[in-house]
Amino acid sequence: MPRSVNHVASRNRRKKVLKQTRGYFGARKNVWTVAKNTWEKGLTYAYRDRKNKKRNFRALWIQRINAAARQNGTTYSRLMGALHKHEIDINRKVLADLAMNHPEAFKAIVEKVK
User: Fold this and answer.
1) Number of other CB atoms surrounding residue 66 within 10 Å
2) How far is CA 44 from CA 13, 18, 23, 37, 53, in A?
3) Distance CA 113, CA 111 (A)
4) What is the pLDDT of residues 44-89, one digit of tens each?
5) Sequence-ordered list of residues with C-beta below 8 angstroms from that of 109, at least 6 positions apart, any chain
6) Cα 91 to Cα 32: distance, rounded to the nearest angstrom
7) Could you tell me the CATH number of the domain that includes residue 95?
8) DSSP letters spanning 21-78
9) Which of 24, 58, 73, 91 would bridge 29 by S-S if both were Cys, CB 3.0 to 4.6 A apart?
């Protein structure tokens, strides 16, 4: 008796991957083995870069806080140390937003911890 193969499920599985590789260049979009490898590697990059995105944003916030702190006569390191010492719990994301969009509020925070 011949072996029974579930072609419906395997075709659907392949179609799902090929649909996600639409827009890729050359054989990466329509040749099953190439498309599958590219798709899997893309998932790896996506996972890695979700972590890197957090790293990059934190670095950006620190640069913005440092630039604003130096305009107010201190440095990033001294500012964060002073905030910690005065027990002012404000995260870097909010501090960077204040530094960019509300410089007078940022200046008030710096003056408070000086």
Assistant:
1) 18
2) 19, 17, 18, 11, 14
3) 6
4) 999 999 999 999 999 999 999 999 999 999 999 999 999 999 999 9
5) 83, 88, 90, 95, 98
6) 47
7) 1.10.1900.20
8) TTT-SGGGGT-HHHHHHHHHHHHHHHHHHHHHHHHHHHHHHHHHHHHHHHHTTS-HHH
9) 24
Q: Which of 102, 57, 99 is CA-nearest to residue 80?
A: 99
The position carrying tokens 């201190």 is 74
1 inside domain: no
Q: What is the dihedral of CA 93, 96, 98, 101, to 10 degrees?
A: -120
Q: Label residues 3-29 b or e (16+ Cβ within 10 Å = b).
A: eeeeeeeeeeeeeeebeebeebeeebe
| 72 found inside a domain | yes
The verdict on residue 87 lying in a domain is yes
In a domain, 99, yes or no: yes
Instruction: Say how far residue 47 (Cα) sits from the centre of its chain.
Output: 10
Domain count, the chain: 1
What is the domain extent for residue 95?
Answer: 9-113
